[in-house]
Amino acid sequence: MAAQKAALWHANTELARYTALLKEDAATQTQVDQWRYQKESAEAGILNAQAQVELAKLNLSYTTVRAPFDGRIGRHLVNPGNVVGAMGQQTPLAQIDQIDPIYVYFTINERDLLRVIERQKPAAGPTLEQRRVPVYFGLSNEEGYPHEGRLDFASISVAPTTGTLQLRGIFPNSDRTILPGLFVRVRVPALQKRDALLVPGDAVSFDQQGEFLLVVNDKNVVERRGVKTGPQVGELLVIGEGLKPDDLVIVEGVLQAIPGRTVNPQRAASSSPPPESARVSSDECQKSVERSSDK
Q1: pLDDT, tens digit (0-9, with 9 covering 90-100), for 213-244
Q2: CATH label, 102-187, candidates 3.40.50.300, 3.30.1780.10, 3.40.50.720, 2.40.30.170
Q3: Which end of the chain is more exposed for a tag (fewer CB within 10 A), N or C?
Q4: In a 10 Å sphere around its CB, with 0-12 CB exposed, 13-18 middle and 19+ buried, how is residue 15 labelled?
Q5: Are 223 and 263 in contact (CB under 8 A)?
Q6: Phi and psi angles of residue 113, each rounded to the nearest 5 degrees, phi first
């Protein structure tokens, strides 16, 4: 680089000198052109020298091997003085394991997977990071599943040889007592069961204000009740908001039930559709509220 800079300085000096001499007819145009060529060649030489410097820095950086993540390194597999990269092959120098956080890999069989997918359909959409599915594990000498983490990876296909899907949980391990390679027991909760209010899907109506149900108050007057529905359980819909356990919901004769109108309600015997002989007349409405342990 220094030699090229010196050559460029000399070429610029001589080009300026011979250009001035050409104006006094003391030099020829050929001499001026020759020094202009020397100047441009020196500029190109500087660019080439800069490229060689960058290449030398890159080659020098290859002599320092840095870990791509924090972890613990095992024994070195190559001693100083050994030949590495023989015949163009890569030579492992050592093994580094990430300790904190630590990953736990496990699988789920096809039958359980299909059952989980069916139950998860109402909650489908967000990514694993957004849903933050909890994962628990316990070591062979521990009771229960005391370590808590979250699910951060699920394979996109089922292994045809084993009929299983691989998943991965990530767990904090700040004290570094859990070592890679250990076998653990894993528990991942599916949808939790809880009490919920369910109504027949036909009882839910829609308008410009959203979803609503028609309910009967203590004076047998029809009222409009805005609700938020949840997942579907068979022919029933979970009502997440807007309905109380003691509310009387109109499930038959909805077209004849007008908000503000007084009706003569009849309580439904079950959540299944009533027989034709039990259907109400135009001034009567059936009503029922169901409970379920499904979310």
Answers
A1: 889 888 888 898 888 887 777 788 888 888 88
A2: 2.40.30.170
A3: N
A4: buried
A5: no
A6: -60, -45
